């Protein structure tokens, strides 16, 4: 607790030990971090990029929420990225970043991340660190068990957390049991471009689907989803969904699904979902509404789905690097149950079932368990791996990370987390090739870990060194939003691909101005388009007249710079939309409806040069009935 | 430049020196930083709170921009905070945080910060770290020379950066010279509450007003504003505003202004500006429109304003801790000119003027100069002080910080910055009592300082140890937005005041629900108000029926927790507004217009307990013509 007696770190009093730890996380000025960490923002809806081991925040990538820092979701080019079947949604709750993989190894091409509230998956391009694509998930509610890629990024997945009427319709909530359904959606990822399409949905009982992981190696071709609320309660779930001793891990054979799809054994049902793509050449996002989806019903598709009974309200499901072991983190269980994929296949072959649920065979738990990690802690949530035969599981209630041996199931180390750890992240820790040097605990409660900042505190992450036998706590670092989950990757796998600017001669924006000689102001009816350029240290034109109250004005600003890290910003006094922040070679558009006559300044908002303060201009707004002609100038005083 | 040959910091290779530096910035897990740093976000419109020396981001305080992470500017309670005379503006450009002062010393009560684009000043309360008040600045354009408090926080100031028609009207931009004006606004700050009111404006010539600082000690009662573009150019200012060898520092005698106001020697002119206040008891912001402002004309108020000629396009104006020395940082000058306040008073007494400009006497530069720091670097921008007789000036073009001796004007140390430093910050460095242990350089260009993140890079700050004779670079840390300016303060001056939650029995929100027994759903016409509570681990009610397409639905959520750091979040699938994030004891409102029939889940978005995933519910949306009655339940399965 916050006692007020803590003192700030005093250099002179640091022990040699502390100094040694300090050196482990210190990245000297001008030096680079060893790993990129991609940390979701939870309720912020964004994805943050940190360097490890320093814990420094390198960038917040706007994904599912408007971002005034970058103009995302405000400028005309990116507004379509936030379109959904419900219209424009300025916010979502982003949970699980997942790096693309090739042969089960992180390849540094893309990060996928799920939107939880209004179900969506986004793809972030790691050559630009920008959101390239967002696809909505139809007929779902709360896309939590997502995106969790397959080992060659064949698919990312999306499992409904909340069962809903399928398809959506008006019905009494009391009719929940048996009538509400859960859709598990497989999104195809095009190999070269990363382009996403909904491949198919698997229609499941009205349980809650919590988390997922795809198989790898021997279990490649399967994806595993945890369930809770197999009781199908629709109220006070803290009681109602905690009755059953066991819930299920749903094992989906997606290679079998592909066969059924190929055989035409699907139904096509109406659906309404948005698919939004940002085109890096035009610098413009477009949004398309899709109208149907293919659905497989497990009761009609034998071999497609099996239930693996797992104690108790399993939260995370994690597959070890070999693909043999499937860890069910039963959050209300005292033990940790690990299933054997080999045994699962054997039980299926033997048709050794313990009945079925809604037509889906239930395997016998004692026939598929590989081992049990006994009483390792309270409230197990998630497990990752170090590639050296060890697993690391977080315990929310006992607030610790426990290291155990895969195969012998013995606990070999434990260390506290501050406080209430949820997910954990080891770079590559859910892939076939973990880079097991560091572990990051993603904590839910902060309280007294940092200087207080009133009732609202940043969430917190903790960095541990796991290179030795014993875990060692190195660093606390606060995060933007809730650090819900994260992925990490060696810097070298990403940095060489990172673009520095957009070539101006490749700019295909429909309203680009590629040379100062082409600047102009064009009126068509009450639409005024201002084709403007920015280059150190002027905006051209910088004197604009002939705009009238009631006009619809578009400032199309092209940044003519062709050097790294010379963005220009743009704002107009009183403009209802946020500013622009335009990268070199890019064009962005600020939409403005002037409401009052007057002469309004505009200026560059990103300090760009010694004469940045001089990078300004004026736009004159005349009354609606004025006959002031459209006119523009720069340097013509 | 980015060469690709840099390697991440390797612990084993760190020299003893590096290890020593590491220890100086390392704040071990559970330990506290020594200083709070309040760093503006520039184009992000927000204020970030960092710990020093760690450089850790403790919180982003939303001020002038919507923030999806916190629901600020989206929930009904905070939307009025972003109201202006132009309507709701979701964004601004926040430049200069300024701590409140008592007797010239930072007192840890409030931070003020200016909105640059749509001119405003905000006050942040440091007991809650929330924006408490925003006041718009009438008849101004680009509120850059702001807020820069007086020594007992009698006033914060707001100087127009861009001259505009005064008051605003439709006129040709070519009529700029002599017709556009600059207003310097003094905002009264109520001593106990911090409540702001526009006291008066001083009507100035149509120059650009760049920065300001108020006097202290012997110069208390005066405020100094830099000018550029005394040429009164209205186009291509990078050339047009760089012609004159000298521009002016405008010295305003605000005690004299108070006399003129008391004597009634002001004009009252029409004005239209918003004043927005967030009430901590009701948890609701209200916005009021003000209609007039009092104006003083220097030509009619002798002794109110003097011009101090200063080479060349002076950017920052900084007053030393004694109040005697006024540093003009002429950004296009080779030297740094320091004026003597004593000599200024003497020259005024002697009426030793070099003519006048628009009725304002111009002092003779050679009579007021205390000293010149000769050729210290290229592009001086800002100066702060360490309280030990030293000054530190940033040089944008030569990208360095130069330390010089106040009084002897000799350069005694210099150190590079990476890259292109703008402002600098020493905690208390613009007050009478600097805490001169650290210096933070606030840099404009990042390029290769961190792992690359595509064309867009975070800006960067650098921390220097200035406790010894020689400055020592300790740390690079990236920032949110542009770290335009910052203020720092010893943690002890703030942390003891920091609130941990809001007492539920003091909650005066008009739609608060203070007990679970009071939850309800009320329909009045097509307005549906849902009075809901959150406490671990349920939302009450969690089954809601009787909502129809076309309704206007208000979810009034009260967080019943009374413990530190137990916020609850709230979201509804498909809701057009962002989520809520409700602190313990607080009530917030999400507005929703359901467009489609169906049954939509809602849930807690801030992981709060082991059964957080169970903290969910459903709202049924029936067709507009449905007769499903309003109904709510929890636990009534």
TrEMBL record, chains A, B:
Class of the enzyme per the UniProt entry, highest EC level = oxidoreductase
Q: Which Gene3D superfamilies match?
A: Cupredoxins - blue copper proteins, YVTN repeat-like/Quinoprotein amine dehydrogenase
SUPFAM superfamilies from the UniProt entry:
Cupredoxins, Nitrous oxide reductase, N-terminal domain
Locations listed in the record:
Cell envelope
Q: EC number(s) per UniProt? A: 1.7.2.4
Pfam families to which the protein is assigned, alphabetical: nos_propeller
What does the UniProt keyword field contain?
Answer: Copper, Metal-binding, Oxidoreductase
What highest taxon heads this organism's lineage?
Answer: Bacteria
Major location (coarse): other
Q: Which NCBIfam families match?
A: nitrous_NosZ_Gp
Protein's name in the database:
Sec-dependent nitrous-oxide reductase
């Amino acid at each position: 607790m916050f006692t007020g007696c803590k003192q700030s770190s005093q250099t002179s009093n640091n022990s040699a030990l502390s100094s040694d730890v300090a050196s482990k996380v210190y990245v000297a000025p001008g030096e680079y971090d060893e790993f990129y960490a991609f940390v979701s923002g939870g309720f912020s809806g964004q994805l943050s990029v940190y360097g490890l081991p320093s814990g420094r925040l390198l960038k917040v990538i706007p994904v599912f929420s408007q971002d005034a820092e970058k103009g995302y979701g405000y400028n005309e080019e990116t507004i379509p990225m936030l379109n959904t079947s419900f219209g424009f949604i300025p916010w979502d709750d982003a949970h699980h970043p997942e790096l693309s993989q090739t042969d089960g190894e992180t390849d540094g091409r893309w990060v996928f991340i799920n939107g939880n509230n209004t179900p969506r998956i986004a793809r972030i391009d790691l050559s630009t660190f920008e959101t390239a694509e967002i696809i909505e998930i139809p007929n779902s509610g709360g896309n939590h068990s997502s995106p969790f890629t397959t080992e060659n990024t064949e698919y990312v997945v999306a499992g409904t957390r909340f069962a809903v009427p399928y398809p959506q319709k008006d019905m009494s909530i009391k009719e929940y049991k048996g009538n509400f359904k859960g859709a598990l959606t497989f999104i195809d990822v095009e190999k070269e471009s990363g382009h996403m399409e909904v491949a198919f949905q698997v229609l499941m009982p009205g349980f809650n689907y919590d988390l997922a992981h795809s198989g790898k190696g021997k279990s490649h071709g399967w994806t595993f989803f945890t369930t809770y609320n197999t009781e199908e309660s629709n109220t006070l779930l803290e009681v109602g969904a905690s009755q059953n001793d066991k819930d299920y891990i749903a094992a989906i054979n997606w290679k079998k699904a592909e066969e059924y799809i190929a055989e035409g054994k699907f139904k096509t049902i109406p659906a309404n979902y948005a698919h939004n793509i940002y085109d890096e050449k035009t610098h413009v996002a477009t949004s398309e509404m899709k109208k149907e989806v293919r659905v497989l019903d497990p009761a009609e598709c034998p071999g497609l789905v099996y239930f693996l009974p797992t104690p108790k309200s399993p939260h995370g499901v994690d597959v070890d690097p070999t693909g043999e072991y499937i860890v069910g983190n039963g959050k209300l269980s005292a033990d940790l149950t690990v299933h054997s994929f080999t045994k699962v296949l054997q039980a299926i072959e033997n048709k050794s079932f313990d009945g079925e649920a809604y037509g889906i065979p239930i395997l016998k738990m004692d026939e598929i368990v590989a081992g049990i990690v006994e009483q390792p802690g309270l409230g197990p949530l998630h497990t990752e791996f170090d590639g050296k035969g060890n697993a690391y599981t977080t315990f929310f209630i006992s607030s610790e990370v426990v290291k155990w041996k895969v195969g012998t199931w013995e606990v070999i180390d434990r260390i506290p987390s501050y406080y209430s750890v949820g997910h954990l992240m080891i770079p590559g820790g859910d892939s076939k090739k973990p880079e097991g040097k560091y572990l990051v605990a993603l904590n839910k409660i902060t309280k007294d870990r940092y200087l207080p900042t009133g009732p609202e505190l940043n969430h917190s992450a903790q960095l541990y060194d796991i290179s030795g036998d014993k875990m060692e706590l190195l660093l606390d670092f606060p995060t933007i939003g809730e650090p819900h989950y994260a992925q990490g990757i060696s810097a070298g796998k990403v940095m060489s691909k990172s673009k520095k600017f957009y070539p101006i001669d490749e700019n295909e924006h429909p309203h680009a101005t590629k040379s100062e000689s082409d600047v102009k102001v064009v009126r068509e009816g009450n639409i005024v388009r201002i084709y403007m350029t920015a280059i150190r240290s002027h905006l051209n034109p910088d004197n604009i007249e002939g705009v009238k109250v009631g006009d619809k004005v578009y400032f199309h600003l092209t940044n003519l710079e062709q050097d790294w890290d010379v963005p220009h910003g743009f704002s107009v006094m009183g403009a209802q939309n946020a500013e622009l922040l335009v990268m070199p070679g890019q064009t962005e558009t600020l939409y403005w409806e002037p409401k009052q006559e007057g002469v309004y300044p505009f200026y560059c908002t990103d300090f760009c040069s010694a004469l940045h303060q001089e990078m300004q201009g004026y736009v004159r707004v005349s009354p609606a009935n004025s006959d002031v002609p459209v006119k523009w100038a720069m340097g013509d005083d």
